[in-house]
Amino acid sequence: MDLLETKRILAVQSSVCHGYVGNRSATFPLQLLGWDVDVIPTVELSNHAGYPIVKGRTLDAAHIMDLYEGVSLANPNGYDCLLTGYSRGKECVETIFQIAKLVKAKNPNAIWVLDPVLGDNGKLYVEEAILPLYRSMLPYADLITPNGFEAEVLTEMPVNSLASAYDCVQVLHEMYHIKHVVISSFLAIEGNVWKLYCFASSIGSKPFYVKIPFIEGFFCGTGDLLTALLAAHIASNEFKEDSDSFKRAIEVSLSSVHEVVQRTASRVESLNVKEYHPAYSELSIVKSQHSILSPSFPLFGVYFDRSQNAV
Amino acid sequence: MPVSEVAKRVLSIQSSVSHGYVGNRSATFPLQLHEWEVDVVPTVHFSNHLGYGSTRGRACKPSEVLELLEALLEKNHFVYDAILTGFIPNQRILQVVSKLLIEYQSRHPHVKWIADPVMGDQGETYVEEDVLNTYKDVLSHAFLITPNAFEVKLLTDVSVVNKATALYGLKRIYELYKVPQVVITSFEDADNSDLLFSMGYSLKENTFYSFLYSYPSLSGIFTGTGDLFSGLTLAKYVDEESRQKDKTSKNEREKNSSLGFFTEVIGQVLTCMRFVLIRTKEYTLQQLKHDSSIEKNRFLLSNACELRLVQSRDDLISKKNIYTPEEWNGLERNF
């Protein structure tokens, strides 16, 4: 590694003492990939909300901005990448927007990766009043990683097939001028069969989808892990020799996440537990270092031509 | 890399910073590289370490630390193989931590408490005075402690200024606190001013295995090194212990038993530290060459001196040991 080379990322999202969601899902993988990760927690909890007991606190907007001012002073070179995820309450989301503008003012080349954590499986985690605020942030982001539900909520369009995902992504490009859009996962029914897809598009490139093999089980933190890996691979521009570097970055990131989830599922199976408990399903990130550094299970993207898919 | 079968779950209770590498941030990445599941409870959350001259954020309230520890240790019943403690700014938080930790140990006697009794360095105290009194009350529950020379003095009243006084300090620690593993992480010897020393012991089956290492001192500003030391010691200790158990050759076991594997563990830790510090110093010098104004600004300089942990991945997991323990009559005769 070049002596002076330092890749710096600021990650602003939830933090837990135990387990892997939010910044905990993101930090170790990013560090493995050679990134110096500065972290600002938006909430500091004992563990994620799926456990019987959750304790801890939400940081208020003033506290979050205070920490940002501190790291900004301590890190005069600014950041190459800003990663934002879950935060609670309108004031905090506004503060994150302010931080994004400050990061970009300090380094105009900084890439803002915005994971609009709004909900999943048809259910909103945040108040509806925040949605207009999120929409106003979109034009400033360089890459957004909504899941299917979040893409629907932001655009008020359905996302339940490849064609509808394509249409939704076009709206995000055209209305909000977001350079890279990745709908991280959504379900589509084709004939009688359910399929799980990721749909990705970059302005000026051909859109594509990746079919994701189903793995049985419920695992938290996979979206946060995917967003972190996407941020790492896209912001470092490591696939610039490839004919489609964006597509390669998505394929590699999805492969890594898939391998981590597979390892987690195998571990759960070997424990032979009758009932689901979140403690057993925490992502096996620490035991999957090879999967993060160089995944061996390939997931390939397929270019999508809207004119051939009228449905 | 084969998936390790050894249980490696640690709860780390130290300072947290948003930027840079001290406390939890110094310990977590190296432990995770060794495939440890690391749970983290902050005792303070600052934007950066205090060496910068100023920082944002604040110390955690004792009630906040209590709430998180209760959730992890009691209510959600998480299982740990080790608990690692470091910088704790005041007595109230230390009392909360030690009380819950000791209660947890009584329910899970196998849990190893690795305590870095952070109180100061080179004559300067970082914590409130009454922290020392609480450490004196609770250290006997620790499995391994990593005090520096200044902290040995606070705990035993022995001024460590050379090998003989370091040895005496270690003996007093055992007499007062009965801790089975102790490393004085670094001390100076008036007769050897360009060397630093590390001395310690491990008590196994009623036998003391003691060691002494020396290494050239490296000039420069380094922060978070003690936290890195204790995190690495835990990681290398458990790995080396399980390697020893795997060895089937009786000869090999006998060969290592005279030194004890703890000596080898500390040699590996000192080796890792050396490579990390050299890399860090090279980076700092390059930065200064690139922009000489950095040196005059405490903030910029502190930033340029942050440990290059992320860039030292291969060194951190290496089992290399470039040091040979020193033969010193003082050790053989007295321990």
Automatic annotation (TrEMBL), chain A:
The keyword Nucleotide-binding is assigned to this record? yes
Q: What is its EC number?
A: 2.7.1.35
GO biological processes: pyridoxal 5'-phosphate salvage
Q: Which organism is it from?
A: Schizosaccharomyces osmophilus
- InterPro entries given for it? PM/HMP-P_kinase-1, PyrdxlKinase, Ribokinase-like
Q: What is this protein called?
A: pyridoxal kinase
Gene3D superfamilies associated with the record: 3.40.1190.20
Enzyme class, broadest EC rank: transferase
Please state which protein family the record places this protein in.
Answer: Belongs to the pyridoxine kinase family.
Q: Name one GO molecular function term.
A: ATP binding
Q: What is its main location?
A: cytoplasm
Q: Which CDD domains match?
A: pyridoxal_pyridoxamine_kinase
The record places domain Pyridoxamine kinase/Phosphomethylpyrimidine kinase at 94-238
Q: Could you name the Gene Ontology cellular component terms for this entry?
A: cytosol
Keywords assigned:
ATP-binding, Cytoplasm, Kinase, Nucleotide-binding, Transferase
Q: What is its subcellular localisation?
A: Cytoplasm
Identify the domain of life: Eukaryota
UniProtKB/TrEMBL annotation, chain B:
InterPro entries the record matches: PM/HMP-P_kinase-1, PyrdxlKinase, Ribokinase-like
Instruction: Mention any one GO cellular component term assigned to this protein in its UniProt record.
Output: cytosol
Domain Pyridoxamine kinase/Phosphomethylpyrimidine kinase, residue spans: 61-238
Q: What is its EC number?
A: 2.7.1.35
Cell compartments where the protein resides: Cytoplasm
Keywords of this entry: ATP-binding, Cytoplasm, Kinase, Nucleotide-binding, Transferase
Task: Write out the GO biological process terms.
Answer: pyridoxal 5'-phosphate salvage
Q: What is its main location?
A: cytoplasm
* GO MF terms held by the record: ATP binding; pyridoxal kinase activity
Family to which this protein belongs: Belongs to the pyridoxine kinase family.
Quote the protein name from its UniProt record.
pyridoxal kinase
Q: What is the lineage of its organism?
A: Eukaryota, Fungi, Dikarya, Ascomycota, Taphrinomycotina
